[in-house]
Amino acid sequence: MTLHATREAAVVLVDGPALVHRWFHRWSYATKQGSTVDSKRFVIKNARFALARAHSFDPSHLAQNLLSPQVEYAHTPKHNKVIVCFDNGDGGRTELFPDYKKNRRQVARDPELSVMMKVAKRVFLEEPEGTILVLPDSNPRLKMINAEADDMIATIALRNQKYKVPTVVVSHDFDLYQLIDDNCKSYHYDIRTKYLVSEKGVIDRIGIHPKLVRDYKALAGDASDGVPGVKGIGKVRAQSLLKKYGDLDGVLTKGIKKETGRVGEILREGVKDAELSRKIVDFRLCPKIMPTVEQFMKK
């Protein structure tokens, strides 16, 4: 029996908006430098490359934090189950906090980006049935779901962790670092650095364990997403407080009582902001996608 017949499959969860935005910015930069590359051709080429990469992930390599060898699109065996997720609303975050991603909404959307998004979806949807699922586009009944790509990815990844199904999240969004779990075979591939990100990698980068990313952002905030955090805390203090008190609940109970001076004042004044920020950052699990997802993964 060949290696291809016995190799364990992985579920690859792709952050569609992150991927297409990255392609758009690369294409835009190239055109400013004098390139005449057609945007549609650029997307088609990159989408196929992304699919080849997704199918090359090998669970036996992932367990050693090693990337699988890249192969050409036309010669890539369809080993893995690829699920590409696109935003379909914001999960009610703007309703909860009107300034959520306000800076991004105020920037004029380049029409070429919309074209590239449509072309990418078309390329993905043209793949052989049973090898790829595009959410929510693959099922018309899912069009009413109000969720970001992150929410759909988290819903599937957390389900897979329960059953220890090898899963790779493909993105550059550090919100999704929360899903890294070596013991549960849940991995992260960073589309910017082209490296797998381990639990140790997250700790080295932002100073906290992946499971604390949500609490970290609730304290430190995130200007790019419009998450307020607690004014006056910042990244360094957020790291320190989480290490000292374990998690956000510990900071907002024990920390408020034990911290003195300016830090104590900041925490007491910022409880509501911390709790609001946690609600914004929290994943909106969307179980309605799971019947479609589970049926696809069984094929």
Architecture blueprint of SSEs:
Layout: H1 3-6, E1 11-15, H2 16-32, H3 39-56, H4 59-62, E2 81-85, H5 93-96, H6 102-106, H7 111-125, E3 132-135, H8 149-162, E4 167-171, E5 186-190, E6 195-197, H9 199-206, H10 213-220, H11 234-245, H12 248-258, H13 261-269, H14 271-281, H15 290-298
Parallel strand pairs: 1-2, 1-4, 2-3, 4-5
Antiparallel strand pairs: 5-6
Features of this protein?
single chain; 299 residues; alpha/beta; Rossmann fold; DNA polymerase, domain 1; 2 domains; 6-stranded mixed beta sheet; 15 helices; 6 strands; 50% helix; globular; exonuclease; PIN-like_dom_sf; 5'-flap endonuclease activity
- State the end-to-end distance: 21 Å
What is the highest CATH level, the class of the largest domain?
Alpha Beta
Mean pLDDT: 93
Strand order of the largest sheet: 3-2-1-4-5-6
CATH topology of the largest domain: Rossmann fold
Point out poorly predicted stretches. Answer: none
Architecture of the largest domain in CATH?
A: 3-Layer(aba) Sandwich
Listing every helix as H and every strand as E from the N terminus to the C terminus, the arrangement reads HEHHHEHHHEHEEEHHHHHHH
Globally, the shape reads: globular
Which oligomerization state do the chains in this entry correspond to? single chain
Tell me the structural class: alpha/beta
- The fourth-level CATH homologous superfamily of the largest domain is 5'-nuclease
* Number of helical segments with 4 or more residues: 15
Percent range for β-strand residues: 5-15%
Q: Tell me the total number of β-strands.
A: 6
Number of domains: 2
Query: Any idea what the radius of gyration is?
Result: 20 Å
Helix content: 40-55%
Q: Could you give a short account of the major beta sheet?
A: 6 strands, mixed
